[in-house]
């Protein structure tokens, strides 16, 4: 069994900082290797699990993103976005908690299809779009028990987030690496 509990509570914001502010012992080498990897996490998880990968959707709804998310996405104080929270599971076990924020203004035209992802991984769609550019990562170390609304853990965990630009329209993806996560070689 894994130490994840699913319940509703008011979550606090993680302390996200630019990746370049983590130096030396603050970001141990084995952690830095996968935490700062610029490839597709979805592709890595599919390879690592031998194809035993799936997305478990926890929620997908329109709402007001957290303050730091609105700032990262350059959104107005009252601008809504599509907020999606999922677990990326390998061998039936949650390895990564992912939260995506897609501003309403980003989900028009060609990107309108992102409104209906269902259990398809967002990462695959991002990395197959030729217009995609990624803004440098921000990193956090979560506090025990406080991951996000609906998910609670027993230990501090590493996380990363970045803003993807698709046809110059921003989408934020944050990923928290859960205790069952197995780094790739």
TrEMBL record:
Gene3D superfamilies: Chorismate lyase-like (3.40.1410.10). It catalyses: chorismate = 4-hydroxybenzoate + pyruvate. The keyword Lyase applies. Removes the pyruvyl group from chorismate, with concomitant aromatization of the ring, to provide 4-hydroxybenzoate (4HB) for the ubiquinone pathway. This is Probable chorismate pyruvate-lyase. Its EC number is 4.1.3.40. The lineage of its organism: Bacteria, Pseudomonadati, Pseudomonadota, Gammaproteobacteria, Cellvibrionales. It is found in: Cytoplasm. Pathway: Cofactor biosynthesis; ubiquinone biosynthesis. Belongs to the UbiC family. Substrate binds at residues 84, 122, 175. One of its GO terms (molecular function) is lyase activity. InterPro entries: Chorismate--pyruvate_lyase, Chorismate_lyase_/UTRA_dom_sf.
């Amino acid at each position: 069994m894994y130490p994840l509990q699913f319940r509703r509570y008011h979550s606090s914001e993680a302390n996200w900082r630019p990746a370049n502010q983590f130096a030396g012992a603050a970001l141990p080498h084995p952690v830095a290797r996968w935490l700062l990897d610029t490839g597709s996490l979805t592709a890595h998880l599919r390879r690592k699990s031998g194809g035993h990968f799936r997305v478990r959707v926890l929620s997908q709804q329109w709402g007001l993103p957290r303050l730091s998310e609105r700032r990262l996405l350059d959104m107005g104080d009252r601008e809504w976005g599509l907020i999606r929270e999922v677990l990326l599971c390998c061998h039936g076990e949650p390895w990564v908690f992912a939260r995506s924020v897609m501003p309403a203004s980003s989900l028009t035209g060609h990107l309108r299809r992102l409104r209906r992802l269902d259990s398809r991984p967002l990462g695959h769609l991002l990395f197959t779009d030729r217009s995609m550019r990624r803004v440098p990562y921000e990193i956090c170390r979560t506090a025990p028990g406080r991951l996000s609304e609906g998910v609670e853990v027993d230990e501090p965990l590493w996380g990363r987030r970045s803003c993807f630009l698709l046809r110059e329209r921003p989408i934020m993806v944050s990923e928290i690496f859960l205790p069952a996560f197995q780094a790739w070689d």
